[in-house]
Amino acid sequence: MADEEFEQAHSGASQTYPMQCSALRKNGHVMLKGRPCKIVEMSTSKTGKHGHAKVHLVGLDIFTNKKHEDICPSTHNMEVPNVRRDTYSLINIGDDNFLTLMTDSGDTREDLKVPDDLCSELQKAHDNNTDKDIMITVLMACGEEKIISFKQVDGK
Question: What domains appear along the chain, each with residue ranges and CATH number?
Fold first, then answer.
């Protein structure tokens, strides 16, 4: 017994949690085809002679914007991803478009790349910026992270 090892998990380590399909709502999140998605369309069919009402879900992958669909009985559970947004202060943009970011606690990270659709706009804001801080918003779910937006705030 003494030579067994157990992996430790962080608090909130579960990447998903179950929710009854009928409790899901438009603009909420759900796992479709194994991907975290934002629900953009939902419709419920009436109960047929063979049982449950069915819910037709259409969602957009929150990282790739790819469309996914699924049909589930309304009484069954579906997995809902734990989605988190964090905000970081921008320190620098590297030549390879990787950002140097600072957390609220003062730690830095350099592992996030600017998405192509934000790259030129962020670079322009960073170059023309002298008295404002740039805050970067990062979306996290299921072990993936993506920069989704930035905003300029008055400096200290």
Answer: 16-81 (2.30.30.30), 84-154 (2.40.50.140)
